[in-house]
Amino acid sequence: MKYLFVLILICNNCFAQEPKADFEILNCKPIKANFLWAAKTELTNLQYLEYLYYLKKNKGIEAHNQMLPDTAVWRNNLRKAEPYVKYYFRHPAYRNYPLVGLTKEKAESYCEWLEMILNDKFSNDPKHPVQKINVRLPTEAEWELAARGGNPNAIFPWKGEEMRRTDKKFKGQIKANYLRRRGDYMGVTGSFNDYADVTATVYSYWPNAYGLYNMSGNVAEMVFEDGRTKGGSWRSRAPFLEIDGKDEYAGFTEASSKIGFRYFIEVVDFKTLKPKKEIELSAKLIESMLTEISRDNSFLISRYEVSNQLYNLFLESASNQKYASDNSLWITEMDYPAVIENDYTTHPNYSNYPVVNITKEGAEVFCNWLTEEYNKFPKRKYQNYEFRLPSAKEWELAARGGLQESPYPWGGPHIRNAKGCMLCNYRPAKDRWVLDIGSTYLVSGISESELRDASAQDGSLITGPVNSYHPNNYGVYCMSGNVAEMIADSSITKGGSWGSLPYYLQIKSSELYKGASPYIGFRFVGSTKVKSDNK
């Protein structure tokens, strides 16, 4: 399956890429992985007329009339407003102009209708990977993310801080629809004007790096926060067009000729387009997961953290269902948990990801189950074999890979290789935030949301496949990072997780175990007394 929530880079690239998706959502562009999308344009008169037609046909004329925009808003800003009052919303010449004259409540009603239409469309399209979406106004932070187009230091949605193009082909042309000075609605004469006395068509000017038009200027755009807009309008001066600019219309409650909106789409569930690749438990499969640490085979360890696929085999037994993952725990640990809560343990995309959100008791019962199942196979490599959680000492022995002094499983004192690629899945921070590698690792004032966004630098927003990155000298994967691993003999975890700072990735470090968590998984170790002659 291609439709992954996280972008997996296993040292082929060093940093997360621009948002990309292997599918399309009409009139939208991805702005965060493949689960958060923004409409390419502000909502048009034509799009809203489609909504009104639906209301009239299905809900009646009263419902239709209640949702009509207020066309009289043009009288508040223009001396000769009557042509706009009469024609702007209804006339075909203005079909692709941004809708104005709407309250926030009406904008949200449109989003609810579009959500219903698109969910129906996706559910009836067997080839489209999306199962369910939410359509809504963006938060202020989401709007800014979209407007910046991948440049965290952007002042405007376009490159640079100038209001005119400086390249030879378009030199001097204005980049957005705004007010240069009082009464100057069209700009100067010739090709240097903004081609608009009020609003302009939604595909005017140039899109930003994410393919979004008119993020600044044209109409100020409503956001989720009450009474807030972003981006400035056709009647705004340049400072109000800055991404971090002051909200010129802060506190608005009434409809306006200067305020419109664009919708954002959050994917909350994906379809299973291909059947799951089932695995059959066998002695050979279990043995393929193991690597020998001691020469006499008295101590072996799983090469991989226990995956969703393997843990789901354990859960197929009715008596084990009470040990299933509690995926509601994702809610407090992510900015966009819905798609992960719905899909992480069951969708084929995540079969090879580590199981999380389980209790230590569940991990121990899994080990007992695996022991019992393995010893049922007549042809097995090891006799009288037991699987269990490792002790802290055993875990450290396996993590070192024979390197006695190394702080990390891969050797050396660094978390990046010589090419700058990160060597495990953890919570990297921007260099300008870093103080040292101790407990006071970061400067103060860095928000949880900023840290979560920075996590994508290592290629994974959350966990990654259990065979990600490079194994240590014993052939064991992800001994540091990905998920922190439960320890049998104490209430700690070892190795750090996708949410851990570098200090906790060191072999000697540990974190307190506080119960089931999206950050905690496990791997098993085993011991045998007698090696079988069966091959």
Can you describe what's shown?
The structure is a single chain. This protein has two domains: 30-270, paralog of FGE (formylglycine-generating enzyme); 283-528, Alpha-Beta Complex (paralog of FGE (formylglycine-generating enzyme)). Helices cover 20% and strands 11% of the residues. It is built from eleven helices and 17 strands. The strands form five sheets. Strands 1-2-7-3 form a four-stranded antiparallel sheet. A four-stranded antiparallel sheet has the order 8-9-16-11. Strands 14-13-12-15 form a four-stranded mixed sheet, covered by helices on one side. Strand 1 (28-32) and strand 2 (36-39) form a beta hairpin. The longest helix is centred in the first third of the chain and has 20 residues, at 104-123. The chain is elongated and about 95 Å long. Residues 1-16, 188-192 and 530-535 have low confidence and may be disordered.
CATH domain class name of the largest domain = Alpha Beta
- Identify the CATH homologous superfamily of the largest domain: paralog of FGE (formylglycine-generating enzyme)
The arrangement of helices and strands along the chain is: EEHHHHEHEEEEHEEHHHEEHHEEEEEE
| Estimated share of beta-strand residues | 5-15%
Counting structural domains, the number is: 2
Question: What's the number of extended β-strand segments?
Answer: 17
**Named CATH architecture of the largest domain:** Alpha-Beta Complex
